Amino acid sequence: MSRFKRVRCSLLVLACLGTMGTAFAQTQAAARQAALANIGRTATPAEVKAWDIDVRPDFKGLPKGQGSVRQGEVLWEAQCASCHGSFAESSEVFTPIAGGTTAQDVKSGRVDGLMPGANQPNRTTLMKVSTLSTLWDYINRAMPWTAPKTLTPDEVYAATAYILFLGNVLPEDFTLSDANIREVQDRLPNRNGMTTAHAMWPGKELGGTARPDVQGSNCMVNCKAEVVIKSFLPDYARNAHGNLAEQSRVVGESRGVDTTRPASAAAAQSGSSVAQVERAPAAIPVAAVVKTAATGAASVMPLLQKNTCVACHGMDNKLVGPSFKDIANKYKDRADAVNYLSGKIKAGGQGVWGAIPMPPQALSSAESAQISQWLAQGAAK
């Protein structure tokens, strides 16, 4: 056989093998497809609608509904204030929502407190958010923290209206709705503080561009050392105007130091330069203490759930506040633990477990005493 014929035969063999390989691959693919034929199904329109809940900056996807500022205040105190404060001044874990905006910001659409050189220590949600749909959408899908997606559209409108009222964007007699939310968008303090030059919008319909802002590169040369800024009170002026811990409003991360104590003692008490003082609340009458034979968590769990205590306290782990087990261990040797804890539950307070405040709880004396009795006996499961 000539060399030419041998090469031709080799090519024919390779072609046949290739055809067989392709056929085999197609057969395998068909077998896999057949095996998956009965797995899964197409989502129904109702199922798609249940997940398709996002609200875009142009308010596409916004459901119909309405809610007033006054309705929002009632809802806020019931489901929001325990984490965010009655005036949305929450701090540390949950950053402040309202504050830092002015009537001029509402008029101009740019927040002066965000501009270079502004002496604004804390940045709140209303200072930064540029689209009202973002605020509405987040509340709708994520709040309340312990039961997300349980608010009705009318309740979301009411909560949003109350937040905007706290930021002096809406008057107290305003009712927010799907019909007027676009007009309210035009009053948002930072509405003109947003850029779409980053090309993160889905196309150009919202003013975006086609060129992402990822063209730069890290320098990593001659980097500046980290600058640490600290402040302190000289000893001669420490308590010149009374105890600062009792005078500072609880907004953001700002806290007043306990100036009734020496600087070293105050720092040792809190582990930092910010100190808080534990004050014993007024004791409730001993007669109000419920002596219950049941000492397990089952005896108090209905009360803990009813008053949303479990939203901030875990049985064995810290959430927003300390765990029930940690509270029990802290006061296990205190003779008046039941009265003390009952008073703390009803009066609220801050500083004992950190800077996060616990708002006063609307429990009866008997209910708070029952929970305190359980805690004083070790918070048994």
Give an overview of the whole structure.
- By secondary structure, the chain is mostly helical.
- Helices cover 36% and strands 2% of the residues.
- It has 14 helices and two strands; from the N terminus they run H-H-E-H-H-H-H-H-H-E-H-H-H-H-H-H.
- Strands 1-2 form a two-stranded antiparallel ribbon.
- The protein is globular, with a radius of gyration of 31 Å.
SSE string: HHEHHHHHHEHHHHHH
Q: What's the β-strand tally?
A: 2
- Percent helix range: 25-40%
What's the Cα radius of gyration? 31 Å
The major sheet is characterized as: 2 strands, antiparallel
End-to-end Cα distance, whole Å, is: 91 Å
Give short descriptive properties of this protein.
two-stranded antiparallel sheet; 14 helices; about 375 residues
Task: Explain briefly what this protein structure is.
With 381 residues, the protein is mainly alpha-helical.
What is the topological layout?
Layout: H1 3-35, H2 45-51, E1 66-68, H3 69-79, H4 81-84, H5 103-108, H6 125-128, H7 132-142, H8 153-166, E2 175-177, H9 181-185, H10 263-270, H11 301-306, H12 324-330, H13 337-347, H14 365-376
Antiparallel strand pairs: 1-2
Helix pairs in contact: 3-8, 7-8, 13-14
